[in-house]
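Why run this: before we spend reagent on co-expression, it is cheaper to look at a predicted model of the complex and decide which construct boundaries make sense. The entries below are exactly what would go into the expression plan.
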Amino acid sequence: MVSRVVLRLALDERAARLRQTLVGRYGAVGLPLLESGAFTLVFTLFVRPRVAPVSYLLFVYVGVLAWRTFARGVSAAAGSLVRAAPVLRQVPLRAAVVPTSAVLAAFLDAGIALPLLAVGVVALRGWPELAALALWLPIALALQIAATLGLGWLVAVGNAFYRDVGLAIGPLLYILMFAAPVVYPTSVVPLPLRPLFLANPMAAAIDAYRAALLGGVPPSLEAVGFASLVALVLLGAGWAALRLCDPRLREVL
Amino acid sequence: MSPAARSTLLQVRALATTLRPPLGLGGGAPGFGLKDISFSVAPGATVLLLGQNGAGKTTLLRLLAGVYRPQGGVISAHGRVGPVIGWTPLFSAELTPREHVRAYGMVAGVALDVDDVIHRAGLDAVAQRPVRLLSAGEQARLALAPGLAVPADLYLLDEGLSLCDPAYRAAAIAFLRRRADEGAAVILAGQDLLCARALCSRGLLLERGRLIADTDLDTAIAVFTAPSAEGDPTRTVVIESVEVQPVIPGAGERIDVRCRVRTGPGAFALLVALKRPGGPGGGAVLFSSRCIFSQEDHGDTRPARTLEVGIPASALPQGRYQIAVAVTDSRGVPLAIREDAAFIPEPQTLRDGPSPLSPLPDSSISLSTSATSVARSWDFDP
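The model came back. Tokens follow.
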């Protein structure tokens, strides 16, 4: 029942957001492509990375799509409780439902871009290896969902009490993007900084996506373990924050 | 449903809560709070929750709806609560009324007939239009209609009716009256006395977070609309407790009523009446008494004082009686009313042993004495 409410709210949130737009749902395809194109232009002209064997555009597109979904989910979750104040102050609906549906809506948006990604992968690199796909895609998805939900729940509660959280989360996520292997591979990160770098679960998730789709270097088991631990801590902390603050946060919305 | 649940749909005891801004914000300003709210609602009751802006009506409704959690006291509700607390649609203004009703049904956990709800709200012509393009009245109808369509035993409504056009308002009131006849209860918060008179028979009067009167509608409205100087501290009067001695009165014995009252400075009268409970039009005052008292100015504090009034209850026939207590100002305007129930046992019981003067079941409490009849029956000349 709760899952149906989450899905309904997510679909309605998307419908409301896309209404009175020109490109509608296809913005979810166009914007990551535009962003990837801009990164490709800048980095191939000035930095000249050596990313083999796929083209840099496809490499960046996978990273941008994963990161944008994460960032969109977290920032949508941040403002979700405040936006849903009218319903939360009338109906004793579980507060956790609201940021969860915001995160789900971000993932539904990303789903629109998947056909283009599939065509790009097959056209530029060929069919991905089934074994790598079957192993790394679920790991990448699990890490990303856990990290997005956990951080989303936390910032949603934080923003309910202090609106600075919602104002800061957008710029912070943009800065964090450069601390994840979105526009560069993990291999260029200096070894002493590697543990700190891998504390970001999205770093391991992006590497896992690339290993699944592009045959890239997969993350090490230690990296996956560390990322899983951080993602689980985020998930637990976010859930606990929502459970503990649920009655109180309705009073400050 | 248990017998207790049948006689009382909602029981509120010593409810207290304080809404505070988050730590570090609000400059340490004291939060708004409700304090020591007690009342009960029986099946079929139609109650107006009355009070000035900021008195705590909406906060109380949210507590009753389970949206806020009380910091003290107990709320026990039997049956399903149907809150319609806002008067604007709950979801994004980009969605259509149809999408709103569908989403409301989902979050309320009820499969609503979307077309039927839209039709009853008179929104067929705008059903596919974004809500932001609807008029204020249409938005109010959209806020009310799904809430009223959810089957409930206790309806909680806040102001929204007054924004709707007369036709919809009349239909909604007729629906709520019908539901009350079927055993549901309605609590309507607001200051729309037109709606209130059409729907409600009982009034709860809130002032600055305290319940100062739980009485019939006419008396509540009379107290609410009585002329008063804004900020006059004497307006806040609380009858904190009423004790009756002896608990089992013998024939011809005087009944002493001891009241603990908290007032601001000024001159007041305490009126105590022994009444027969009755239905609409009943509740005749049998005996009454009064005492005049004054309170000195103690600055910001309002000390409580205990007053005792005797009622000569000679030749009382056996049966049930009520003790009603009111505090009025020097002009006779009621400032606080409390109607505690009492029960006089039959003569055999008196001989057999103690049977305490105990509260009547809430469903049998009559709250029908109007302000006019109170003044006339108590023969109080201001």
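Chain B touches chain A through 32 residues (CB under 8 Å). Residues 247 and 357 of chain B are 5 Å apart (CA to CA). Bring this page to Monday's planning discussion.
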